[in-house]
Backbone:
DNA sequence: TCAGGTACTATAACAGATCAAGTACCTGAT
DNA sequence: ATCAGGTACTTGATCTGTTATAGTACCTGA
């Protein structure tokens, strides 16, 4: 991070929150992988993109941990789509992680406010 | 992350912000390494600790990039202390990174609010 | 004397994120 | 008919911040 001057900061800033972000996107309804990618990309508005490879790694991790379940869509023709559904365990972890996020956020806010 | 259930989340959540946090702590006045460590640990209140090794790595990185300058304190007896002073370049990067942090924070807030 | 805190450093390993590349399908423009 | 570009998913190597672990050295209070 902290390049000469330009961009490239913002890479690691979302790190550690990827799984929680994915779970957040899946709260409302099932989504397929690329759809999640686009949802995050659009919400982030250009910068702060989470790369596809990062997300697919996250899907595998979440599935392995039983926080999401995957199933193939029934697209008869055209590209296949793999959908993800959040599990009860996933919702529990999500709630917990949102709490952790808020705590982290407040700590960083405090530290960057550079108080004594 | 996302262990069975317990703790251990909170490790990677500060990741990527370490350098900026250190710069933030140095805004007001020079501090020595261990002092910065304690300031962050106290602000974080138990959890969300940034480990010593992480910080010393950050100091080296910041010094290499010219964002801080280091000098030894004049403690005649007792343990030596290495002080860090933020440079003008460091202040510029800090301002920029605070902006990046706010943007990141808002994005995560949005995504974890799980809107459509 | 000795536990525990202060203070700094170095090395190897871990894990999430990214790079780079690939496969495959579809639509719209030339 | 071709071809660029978007959709959609995957894999393997690599990068890098963080951590584990260990070490050195000094000081204070019990």
Residues:
């Amino acid at each position: 991070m902290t390049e000469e001057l330009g961009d490239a900061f913002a890479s690691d800033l979302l790190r550690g929150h990827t799984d929680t972000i994915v779970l957040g996107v899946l709260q409302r309804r099932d989504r397929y992988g690329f759809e999640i990618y686009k949802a995050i990309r659009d919400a982030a508005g250009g910068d702060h993109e989470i790369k596809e490879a990062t997300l697919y790694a996250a899907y595998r991790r979440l599935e392995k941990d039983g926080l999401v379940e995957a199933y193939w869509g029934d697209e008869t023709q055209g590209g296949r789509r793999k959908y993800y559904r959040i599990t009860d365990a996933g919702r529990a972890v999500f709630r917990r992680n949102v709490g952790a996020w808020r705590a982290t956020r407040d700590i960083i806010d405090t530290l960057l406010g550079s108080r004594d």
